[in-house]
Amino acid sequence: MEFTELIDLASEKLGGAVIVANDDFFASKENLLKASTPIFIEGKYTDLGKWMDGWETRRRRTPGHDWCIIRLGAPGKIRGVVVDTGYFRGNYPEHFSLEACAIDGQPAAEDLQSDAIQWAQILPQLPLAGDTQNSFPVQSEQRFTHLRLKIYPDGGVARLRVYGEVIPDWERLKRLGGAVDLAAVENGGLVLACSDMFFGHRHNLIMPGRAVNMSDGWETKRRRGPGHDWAIIKLGTPGQVRRLEVDTSYFKGNFPESCSLEAVHGPALTVASLTDLSLSWKSVLPRTKLQAHTRHFFENEILDAGTVSHLRFNIFPDGGVSRLRVYGSVRRLSGDEIRKMNRKVREGLAKERKGYRSGS
Q: Backbone phi, then psi, for 234, in 5-degree steps?
């Protein structure tokens, strides 16, 4: 899987934010993490200069470089970044570098600028091209919460995307008790694959909060042949499904006629094996009618599939779903199971990193 298929840990949808920047004279630092693709408006100016859809500092007349500090929306392991200089042609930085740290709690801007912070360099000073999505893989197994982006010497960056694996604090969640959304992106859930996502990205299905409109859900194109659409979700941790929410909000003339949910247990299963037709899935929710623009809640309908690690969400025949919530109890793994699972995950990550380097 390419790293750009993973979750954008810095996304403002997850709560990512640019906490502080040394300068954002021409264009606000908040633009850096906007979910939208950058745009250019010919002839649009402000009192300070040309309006630009990104973070842009003034021209530096003294030695040094510009910087900003970012709080990730979800802590995790970073697998790659995209530094998008879209529409910055004569005013993009010549180079950039990226550092990261892990800090508990919600440190203020002053705390993050302290010399006491231990910043780890995850990308050294590297060249950038203008008006380009500059892509860089990251080799690190550490869990990070904050980033420091440096640009040399000044200029503008339209967007920063930080792709990786969400690593939640499961011990804390266990201590809190109660049902947990096992599929939620903030709890480490990931939509590994889907049959189609022509109108809406598959990751929208497990994003935090309610959808803001129809574009904020998972939506497939109109199916003209037999079959149905589906999405495969890796749970943040193995668990037992207790109740579901299937939200079709905003989907009125394009909601699925019905849906079903199936499950399998195998934490080390690959995407190839999960999409193999020979894999046996257990039913969690039998095929059930859906309604337009509705939050559907299922509890008594849920079948006991035991402890599961992956789900296949089927919609018939096609259409859009805003959100899928999968509430359940977390199973405590034995020490041997954890070691075995970690070993297989490390092996899988090594293979993926080899694929990144070879360009496969």
A: -90, 125
